[in-house]
Amino acid sequence: MVSDEEQKGKPKGKLSRFSMGSRVGGVISHALAAGQDEVGDLNVEYVDVGKIDPDPDNPRHLGITYSDVQPFFGQAAESCQADEGEPATDKERILQSILGLAASIEKNKVQQPIKLYRHGDRFRIVYGERRYWATLIAQKPMIPAWILTQRPQRLRLLQLIENLQREDLSLPNKLSNIESAIKELE
Q1: pTM for the predicted model, two decimal places
Q2: End-to-end Cα spacing for the chain
Q3: What is the pLDDT of residues 171-186, one digit of tens each?
Q4: Phi, then psi, of 147 in degrees rounded to 5
């Protein structure tokens, strides 16, 4: 039985389906409600890649710019073959990885939406920057995206969580991510 006190703080509508009178369900329901309060409704739609900007303060520095990817537009499959010879720089390895992803996107489209937040009349990337660059190379005009109505309060923490999933994340990038998340939480 749910007490009157617990009933007062109980979420309504879609979120109430998780509570079902149990404490665990109630905790899940309240966590979802708090998340909605922080970022608003989550909306997935196709977004024009020309209206998207990488987050300039993302602590994971890919070091890729529009001028780096432009020569490969429409040629991802042919360009993703690594050149033999001198060892590749970090930037060249990242670009090769993005070219491979672009070749996949040319054939199969983007399979996982990126996450964006509104920034004026444009969008900024929360995560999914590699998919964004690969979509440009594959010359796809639209990309599926989860759209947040505003910049998340804990943007750097979200980026840290996403970036730590990458096996190829360098130690300096890991440390930069952690430092940014700590500063944001202070």
Answers
A1: 0.64
A2: 39
A3: 776 676 677 677 766 6
A4: -110, 125
